Amino acid sequence: MGQKEFHYRWEYDLSASPQALWPLVADTNRFNRDAGLPDVTEQVLAAEGGRRRLRLSKLGVGIEWEEEPFEWIRPHRFGVVRKYKRGPVKEARVTLELSEREGGGTHLVYQVWAKPRGALGRAVIPVQVGRVSRRKFAELFRRYDALALSGEQQNGTTTTARPGAGERALLEAQRRKLLSSGASAELVARLFKTIETGDELTLARLRPYALADEWGVARRDALELCLLATRAGLLDLRWELLCPLCRGAKQSAKSLRDVQASLHCDSCNIDFTVNFDRSVEVIFRPNQAVRRVESREFCVGGPQVTPHIVVQQLTRPGERREVAPVLEEGRHRLRTQALPGGQFVFVTREGARSLTLRANGASWPNEEVRLSTRPVITLENATADEQLFILERMAWGDQAATAAEVTALQLFRDLFSTEALRPGDQISVGQMTILFTDLRNSTRLYREIGDSVAFGTVMNHFDILREEIAKEGGSIVKTLGDAVMAVFTRPAPALRAIIAAQSTLASPPEGMRPLTVKAGIHTGPCIAVTLNERLDYFGSNVNIAARLEPLSNGDDCVITSDVRRDPEVADLLDDPAAGLDAEPTEAQLKGFDNERFELWRVKRLA
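Structure (tokenized):
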């Protein structure tokens, strides 16, 4: 250790594997918080190179620095370089390495290089880094090792900020309100425990699907619990708008009316169009009257901020660098932050064990390369500029409750009927399944049994449709006379819902009149708009779905080839226990005069 730079190297032998430890140690936001570092109070993004300018205050001393992009190779290594504009440190570099120990476990090496600024730096660094940080980091790595071995998450119950007497009284009142709404007593107890004892980083961004996975319950149950809790005043709902590249939240809106159709990501320097199916995630946090949660950031660029990125490397012009990540099977993409496009890679166990990926400023190859799950990849920067290489999984995070899923729930439409987009805004919702139904011979029904009795019968038929649609996770968008338009996120639940409803209506209890309901289902991308102050769906795929119902006889449901080819629908139709038959047919639909549609009539077997 010389006068110009301090160097510290700490080594730990831990019991958990590198893969189990990575999500914990690479969450630098939580690590910095747990280590007692102050939050970042101001952030200004630099114009180029992915660098950030940040500021914090520690012991009354203002510290500013320029931070290079974090570099990492999941799950083995990450590091960052910070160049300080003022404060006792001139420059610091941090690296963390995880390697497998022979016989199991992990050897963790944490290193810090720090250049002091003047006498204050030479005095502060040995105390703050050499003693305080060394002791605290050792404690944290042991704690994270225990968490990794137990399979628990960092967001456990570690807070010391317990609710006061007034907050506890309010919580009890809301607990009773939630239970009276039909919520599961067990899930309510788990949610209240999380709110009462969870730490701020967890509570500032409650993700219902993550809670469901942690609790071991159905995701829809956790989502609906959070919606009920929002209506009861326990939680606040927010819509986070995510960048399609870094997948960070670029806007947080309290209402759909505040959601913008187009946004800009400063980090990635791109404009993007908002999509309900991917770019809008629903999150929750405790209502401030229940528990005040301050949303703070302790690190803005660590590996777990963008967990879909498995490799990130900053390279100089002409530099070649080898990396050996552990990859999941599926489609990946290599890109750089500055160059357009990217190289697609499909990861499979039988793929190539080595690959050179070259950025030269020209277009990327069109061919999708097949790569093994544990490859050696050579990254070559053949440009005249610095390049930030990014290798990312293309699969969207499956713990996100998207706006497309939430707005398709009947419970959401019942509880938040005024939630709608700003008039005139159109937002893509990605792939949705549209169901149209109509009551057959309803005019004759009114003539035969009179308006009053017929109206009650029609209302009862709506109740049955609504019950079956809600049971399968869909929702009724609107009624048109005796007809219904409903939406689902997937085709199979829509088909199960209408088949069940048709069966119930055709065989009612004694004394009630049997009813026949015609139905048609199509699936495909559509757009969300506000119509009559309610969220509605439009587009050519909605028009196709609307043209199918008139082709139905009432004892069947007409579906398109897009629905028939869905894997879940195929499994349902092939399952003898479902008792369904699909008869192929063909038709020309009104408004689509130049196209013949391949269709199927799905009905129960006699």
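Residues 155-160 have pLDDT under 50 and may be disordered. The longest helix spans residues 118-150.
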